[in-house]
Amino acid sequence: MDLSLLKALEREKVLEVLQRDRLLRSTEEDRIRRLKMELQDIRRKGAKSFARQYSERTCARCQRPLGKFWNSGAVCRGCSHRICNKCRVGVSMLDWKCTVCHAYREVKFRSGEWFVEERAKKFPPDAGLFPMLLTCPIHS
């Protein structure tokens, strides 16, 4: 950015704004990094270990045995694992997710990744005039 054409006071104000922007971006990156680390921790705690043998009737998150009539577990729509009542988080009145899927969803919402994904679905990078403009020769 060329600031040589600006007066000293204007240049100082622009630099202050740029510095605040850099600080805000750094803070936001740290926040998102912490969220993703928390998600990794939840995934690690909620994953079945390959070193142990589990029966079909155990919760995929806490590995507690599931009953036949009470707390028999239900399949999470996010990951398709059987989950006990304690490892479920209500998403709406009728819907729930397991703790890992819920944490993943929260990270996507809090980090803004959902917006980027939805924008990419609606406006693919190669759609519209932009690629055509890139391939058109520039007339001098």
Automatic annotation (TrEMBL):
Keywords: Cytoplasm. It is found in: Cytoplasm, Perinuclear region. Its main location: cytoplasm. It holds the Pfam family FYVE_2. GO terms for cellular component: cortical actin cytoskeleton; perinuclear region of cytoplasm. One of its GO terms (biological process) is intracellular protein transport. GO terms for molecular function: actin binding; myosin binding; small GTPase binding. InterPro entries: FYVE_2, Intracell_Transport_Effector, Rab_BD, Znf_FYVE_PHD, Znf_RING/FYVE/PHD. Signal peptide: none annotated. Residues 1-118 form the RabBD domain. This is RabBD domain-containing protein. It comes from Oncorhynchus mykiss.
